[in-house]
Design goal:
Bound molecules: S-adenosylmethionine
Number of helices: 9
Distance between the termini: 40 Å
Number of strands: 10
Shape: globular
Helix content: 25-40%
Radius of gyration: 17 Å
Length: 281
Amino acid sequence: MLSYRHSFHAGNHADVLKHIVLMLIIESLQQKEKGFYYLDTHAGAGLYRLFSQEAEKTAEYAEGIGRLWQRDDLPTEVDRYVKLIRKLNYGGKELRYYAGSPLLAANLLRPQDRALMMELHPSDFPLLRNNFKEFENVTVKIGDGFQQVKATLPPKERRGLVLIDPPYELKEDYDLVVKAIEEGYKRFATGVYAIWYPVVLRQQTKRMIKGLEATGIRKILQIELAVRPDSEQRGMTASGMIVINPPWTLEKQMKSILPYLSTALAPQGTGSWSVNWITPE
Ligand SMILES: C[S@@+](CC[C@H](N)C(=O)[O-])C[C@H]1O[C@@H](n2cnc3c(N)ncnc32)[C@H](O)[C@@H]1O
């Protein structure tokens, strides 16, 4: 049933987009001294060895983080993200590890911030738990992350970010995302919600967006990065982040770095990007 393992995909172009957006949202929340709550509903293992059998089999990271690793012309925001990954490579020149969303976030959190990382897979959960032994303000749990949206919101801090990053291996995930957002928003309307999605079949993405529009929630920003045009054939051509209540700086930041990313990650010239409001203010 649970066949998706993120270790095959860690560091690919979709992770690059997702993790840059995640970093920028956290940085923006940290403009205020008051702590916030971070919920990672689908955490994965947290840290990935790029020289593992799984990662080497697909080598997706080579067309993601691998395309940024050696560049000396990175825009500042992208440079901060690559520096974070470099830190998790012990500052080394060689790209050996890639950090997933929970570890990236945990490395950015301050003592006053707090996080809950959820993972359902019985093989990935022990890896995740192992990667978080040192973090006092991070809780890791095995279980359904969607349910924690309902169970843990609103946070006591009254400030928070929820990252929803399912595998979409089961089609139901598209509907479960919309349901979780409705439930979360009802309890915590001022929270920031970031939803990752793949573009494999455009119809599925469109349906989820329609579902989000139908909730009546305002301030929904869609950020997308394609490495190839849409195609009926198998495989992910693009990915995106849908952000509810985005920090006011995010739209401008993404518009300034996406032209660079779409060229750097698709050097063959097939890349494209977009930033638009699904529903404005
Ligand atoms: C795309 S990966 C997550 C990657 C991670 N967020 C990152 O950016 O590094 C999705 C993960 O969700 C897990 N998963 C699937 N269904 C879940 C559920 N209902 N609750 C929590 N985790 C789930 C999978 O085992 C997988 O590890």
